[in-house]
Design a protein that fits this description.
binds guanine; six-stranded parallel β-sheet; single chain; alpha/beta; three-stranded parallel β-sheet
């Protein structure tokens, strides 16, 4: 039976460390600020944005949520991003995805000043991840590494399999694991013999967005299983991993809820505080 990597204590520890850094900034007259832009009425986005806002309040950060209507033009959104780029009160800017179809995600993300891209998912931040440099790491991948390190799970030379190739999770976590000397395989919806590949993984990262898709038969005995999925189903929130059967084989497994999602918000806060510290240097 696997050890369940409940992330509540780890997220609380990150928060406590951030409180100290926020106090130090405030003594210098700086309050870290995060601006979140949401366009339209995606229901999941509403929840995510509320969580981010709450966490800002808990930590004493300045937070502003700009909620724009679904028919907002791309030009209008870009000009709002420009305003936040110019506004020194905000050290971080996050454009919540998905955007309505008539707005280019690439254009919106590219407009965010790199030093304010605390979400870490713009071309410039992801480029820095490939090339090296001091861009912000995307929050979910950064949170996954923190979970693995906190549990002292070795990565060097180990076989990591990532299921999912999104720009927000799959691709960046693969690069981060590679940076830490894991041997990384990226699988996706067109991968043949998926089970054969995942069953070799010492570290298995599930980021496909399909409820309970990976059951125990996909898991190697003794593996560390990181479940990034947050699927809303009739049975409530369900990960991409079938928890019961996977936990029988894994040595470590993250729960949903109470796992990776908590770390995503914590890492967003960390990046925002870091952005404020950099700006105050
Ligand atoms: N939508 C779902 N996850 C994310 C995320 O990490 N960042 C942004 N900007 N939008 C999201």
């Amino acid at each position: 039976m696997a050890e369940i990597l409940n992330c509540k204590p780890l997220a609380a520890q990150v928060r406590a460390e951030l409180e100290t850094r926020v106090l130090a900034l405030k003594e210098r007259g700086v309050t870290p600020g995060l601006a979140v832009i949401r366009v339209g009425d995606d229901p999941a986005s509403e929840t995510y944005v509320r969580n981010k806002e709450r966490m800002c309040q808990k930590l004493g950060l300045l937070s502003e949520v700009l909620h724009l209507p679904n028919d907002t033009s791309e030009k209008e959104l870009l000009s709002r991003i420009d305003e936040y780029n110019q506004d020194a009160r905000f050290h971080g800017i996050l454009v919540q995805l998905p955007l309505p179809k008539h707005i280019s995600e690439e254009a919106a993300l590219a407009r965010i000043a790199p030093e304010k891209d605390v979400d870490g998912i713009s071309v410039s931040s992801l480029g820095a991840l490939v090339r090296g440099g001091d861009g912000f790491l995307p929050c979910t991948p950064k949170g996954i590494l923190r979970i693995l390190d906190n549990a002292h799970i070795p990565l060097r030379g180990k076989r990591a399999v990532v299921v999912g190739r999104s720009s927000i999770v799959g691709k960046p976590i693969s690069l981060l694991l590679l940076r830490r000397d894991a041997t990384v395989t990226i699988c996706h919806s067109r991968t043949e013999n998926l089970r054969e590949i995942t069953a070799q993984a010492d570290i298995l990262v599930a980021a496909v967005g399909r409820p309970a898709m990976l059951d125990g038969s996909y898991v190697k005995e003794g593996a560390a299983v990181i479940d990034v999925g947050i699927n809303r189903t009739e049975n409530g929130l369900v990960g991409d991993v079938d928890f019961e059967s996977a936990a029988e084989k894994a040595a470590y497994i993250t729960p949903v809820p109470g796992g990776v999602g908590l770390m995503t918000v914590a890492m967003l806060m960390e990046n925002t505080v870091e952005a404020a510290e950099r700006a105050a240097r």
